[in-house]
Amino acid sequence: MADLKKLIDELRKYPVETQWLEFKHNNYTPEMIGQDISALANSAALYDRECAYMIWGIDDVTHDIVGTEHNLQTLKKGNQELENWLRSLLSKNADFEFHSVKTNNKTVGLLIIHKAANQTVTFEKVAYIRVGSYTKKLSDFPILEAQLWSKMRDLKFEEQYAKSDLDLIEALSLLNHTSYFDLAAARRCGRNCTLSAAGSNSRKAG
């Protein structure tokens, strides 16, 4: 949680919104959020950012923390949880996470959106992009669309982050690190055994 507070403070230092950063006060229109997730994921890929961000409870002009009245994790669209509703209409490669952060005795909503990988992120089968601080249909900007596809074609799987902004404990909890250390130990044993066998054979030969 402390890392999320630090992240919010760092993002607030930007003088204006960017192609991968958007501030909101209390606007939680579901369709807008879906379009923005698509736009921010695609823009993050285009501008070489691992993640993009939407933050609620921040003044659009001063970037002061004003707090928000809602919790992203409990919001609903009709009778359905907002996150489930969004995921049902976003393309399968959309990767995002909601956080509700208490800071300065106020609640800030943080949406972390991972960059698009392999293909554009779409909402209701339409891809969006950020043009300045505005969300637009990607198809209306063919030059940006071509640049984005070029970036994604050049991105190698091995160079992508599976997850980011994790501390050591969180990272280890997601890794099968015991298997890694077992394999590393086996390799060390293999080398030592080979050396031992070689030494033993040389002594016998002598």
Explain what the structure shows:
With 206 residues, the protein is α+β, with helices and mostly antiparallel strands. 41% of the residues lie in helices and 21% in strands. The protein contains six helices and nine strands, in the order αβαβββαβββββααα. It has a four-stranded mixed sheet, with helices on both faces. A hairpin with a 2-residue loop joins β8 and β9 (134-137). α2 packs across α4 (142-154). The longest helix is centred in the last third of the chain and has 29 residues, at 177-205. The protein is globular.
List the helices and strands and how they pair.
Blueprint: H1 2-12, E1 21-24, H2 30-46, E2 51-56, E3 76-77, E4 80-81, H3 82-89, E5 96-103, E6 106-114, E7 122-123, E8 126-131, E9 134-137, H4 142-154, H5 168-174, H6 177-205
Number of helices, counting only DSSP H or I runs of 4 residues or more: 6
Cα-atom radius of gyration? 23 Å
Multimeric status of the protein? single chain
How are helices and strands ordered from N to C? Answer: HEHEEEHEEEEEHHH
Structural class: alpha+beta
Helix proportion of residues, in percent?
40-55%
- The count of β-strands is 9
Q: What's the average pLDDT?
A: 84
Which ranges are low-confidence, i.e. pLDDT below 50, for 5 or more consecutive residues?
none
* Major β-sheet strand ordering: 1-2-6-5
Quick one: biggest sheet? 4 strands, mixed
- Approximately what portion of the residues adopt beta-strand conformation? 15-25%
Q: Describe the global form.
A: globular
| CA(first)-CA(last) distance | 65 Å
